[in-house]
Design brief:
Strand content: 5-15%
Number of strands: 15
Shape: globular
Number of helices: 14
Helix content: 40-55%
Radius of gyration: 22 Å
Distance between the termini: 18 Å
Largest sheet: 8 strands, mixed
Order of helices and strands: EHHHEHEHEEHEHEEHEEHHHHEEHEEEH
Amino acid sequence: MNGGSQGLINLLRGWPNPALLPVAQIKAAAASALSHPDISTPGLLYGPDAGYEPLRQQLAKWLTSFYQPSQPIAPERVCITGGASQDLACILQVFSDPVYTRHVWMVSPTYFMACRIFEDSGFHGRLRSVPEDNEGIDIDFLVQEIQKAEKEAKLKNNNEPIYRHLVYAVPTFSNPSSMTMSLRRRQQLVSVARQYDALVITDDVYDQLQWPRDSASVRPHDTEAAMPRIVDIDRTLDGGSERECADGFGNAVSNGSFSKIVGPGVRTGWAEGTKKFAYELSQCGSSKSGGAPSQLTATFMSNLLQSGDLQHHIVTTLQPAYARRYYSLMSAIEKYLIPLGVELPQEDRDHMGGYFVWLGLPAPLDATKVAVRAKEKHDLIIAPGAMFGVKGDDDVANLKRKVRVCFAWEQEPSLVEGIQRLSRVVRDVQYELDRHGTEVPSPSVEWADSNFR
């Protein structure tokens, strides 16, 4: 291996760097909770189905301040969860049925680990890929395919759905594509969901991690969202989710989590939907039997929000640190990769954020082969686009030349070095193709996702 003096560089791992974890703030919040019996006692007992009430109240205030909806968010719209993944499983248990629900429509490229959650809920073989264009989800494609599915369902006399369709998306700073769905496309998606009785499930876990695209911007910290969530649009568009003749459950749910802004180990999150939706979600069997998820940790998170320590951590530590990492990474990409023909999506955005950058390699390079060579010859781990296909329907979106790189885990010098290493791989493969018409075979590696974890 000839990766250089820094050793292995991992641009696949989508974890927060340990230096950015708010250990001191969590310690203070936990100490406060555990030193007051009126907090520690309910925190250590079974909690109410919808979760620790003070956290629901604090989340409602905090989300209202950040998203600035036309009306304040009521705590009754919020249900505490064990994190985004656990909540997705609960949503499927309560609001879908593998007999009646036609398909799960997943924006592709997708968060690949969500596929298994859907399959575990009985949707094996019924995950469908929906490609993105420059505004996000391809609405015309989605409508066309939903109409086909409806015709098939009617032929089978399948007309008793809970929700007939499920749509899964990460609309803001998406994992993996880093794209942000336009406001117009969000509104169109809500309209389509209402027309075809679909539930739009959005992972809104990166929204607070935002900064100006231009590193020279003098704008202060971003304390308000750049875009309303899809659940916010569903609440107000054309009479809202509780309009006349609607059932009051709505057609969108926001899946939130503290994983990206506190730490994934806290295993605490929230769902926001209509009041009826939040209540029904709280009645999921696992919550009814075991009590509210993450009850004790919820007391810590409530203290973090009430004290203002979490918001302070976001705007004074996370946003600046991730912005610096992003700017360093992008500077290296522009210097070392763009001249080789590598492409970036949505270059006209004002806001950037999240954890990832999505790269398009020049034709005819194969991202999987590039990733194998990067690991074997340059001690560099990247995520090839093939990892992010919708399981069983990965031909719709062309991911063969795509690569995801993460700037959250590694320090800035390693980010720059990692892009330099990737540029050497790209340049070497291009040279071989130009000279020989084919790539020189990489060392024998049996391809599997595990090679790149």
